[in-house]
Design brief:
Blueprint lengths: L11 E10 L4 E5 L5 E6 L4 E5 L2 E8 L2 E3 L6 E5 L2 E9 L1 H8 L10 E2 L1 H4 L6 H7 L3 H19 L6 H11 L4 H8 L3 H12 L3 H23 L4 H8 L4 H12 L3 H8 L14
Antiparallel strand pairs: 1-8, 2-7, 3-6, 3-8, 4-5, 4-7, 6-9
Amino acid sequence: MPTVHPVLAPYVRAIHVYDVEYDGPGVHIGMPSTELTWVLPLDEPLAVSWDGAPDTRTTAWTSVSGLHTRAAAVHHGDRQRGIQLALTTAGARALFGTPAAALAGHLLELSDVAPGLADLPEQVAAAPSWTERVEILQGALVRSLHRLEQPAPRGEVARAMALLTRGVTVAATADDVGYSRRRLSTLVRDEVGLAPKAYQRLARFTGAHERLRRAAATGEVSVAAVAAASGYADQAHLAREWAGFAGCSPTEWVRREFPIVQASGVLDTGR
């Protein structure tokens, strides 16, 4: 995984270079997360839609998605190559000049979000190596950051989101930052596009997804252990939340994403 430029670190959580071969055409699950997702495919346009809603399908050389609470369906052929970035919610304003709230629940092309970066996918694709592609991409983002000079989110809002991510209740978070629950809800919605409680649920699910992914990568999967480590009441609670966010049970997700791994201790919801 490429190292993120220090200037971009508050806004770009990770940069992933991918080159994946499949047995044939299929659909990859794009999981909900507290990060924005930006994909630049290399060989062919990316076809993506919201899970179960084929009428939302878009096909483009870039895909930018804000925070969302349902899975995306990423359609692929025999091979996929490209670069995927995970952006913080602050990154939307800093790099694109728009708050993350404006992107929430949407699948957009880069030209719709940041016209000044519209030619970036072509520049990246034309570069002869992964190293040069990443350098071109990060250079363009550094220039965009300096050009836009957008203010950071209000300190109390950033603190509130950090507390919510750690599982602090909405009421306690509001008290900590000195706002009423209604005022806090307005500020968080204006920044990320979700109410505090919804953001907190998404943050807990994001943590569970990362834990289950790491476990599946090692071949040692216990969904009960993931549920406990992620703050769920039990594995049934995690299974219900997983079905709501991912559109399938944890068992099915592991089977689809890691076909050689068997998940244990999973309550299958039948979805």
